[in-house]
């Protein structure tokens, strides 16, 4: 059984939702994050959920099931028309990439799921207001990263160089049974132009069985983030700073995680520094 008092960087379903919240899990300012937000939304058949984007841009990503996403300007925004996107979605996160919807800041978003659905709402504080759009599943770049028992699949649906956002970076990673991913350990907590980006990060995990995976965050500075956690289906880990990796999939079960990143830097870049013990980087 999981412990009853998890580390503050390790979030369990239901533990961070306010009373009456529609979200199964929330990570954001209440957990000390400054740039990123993640909500996990579960809708019963025919249910609708509406939220204001405020000063953040958002991606609505189906985890299971699909639905309709409507985006309309909020308040005094001019020149925008209401947009509506049908998301086909997928049976589950292990089934492959999915289509998704992008909603800009200063808008209202309505999500409806006719046959039930589970959605990740990934957000980042931003400055520019970009148009609402749908990202088709066939256009999601899929990267095979690493080799041997460190091989994994990265679905770069909103990576820094694949889908236009102002600040938000988001990818999915599928790790085969028994493999290590987010490896070698690396960090992105300093602004060093062209070498390293300052990005906080959220990991949200899915597993197809009760056996836990493991995730490590190690300090990169005195008093920095430090966590070794058993992670189970539906849980999240926050990485405000520090070396992170590996994420270890249990034998016999693949491991999925969603990464959500953003930071204060002047550009939307993903530059990482590998731990000095693993300076060779990805093999």
TrEMBL record:
Keywords, in A-Z order: Isomerase
Record bears the keyword Isomerase: yes
EC number: 5.3.1.30
Keyword Isomerase included in the entry's annotation: yes
Enzyme category, top tier: isomerase
Protein name (record): 5-deoxy-glucuronate isomerase
Underlying gene: iolB
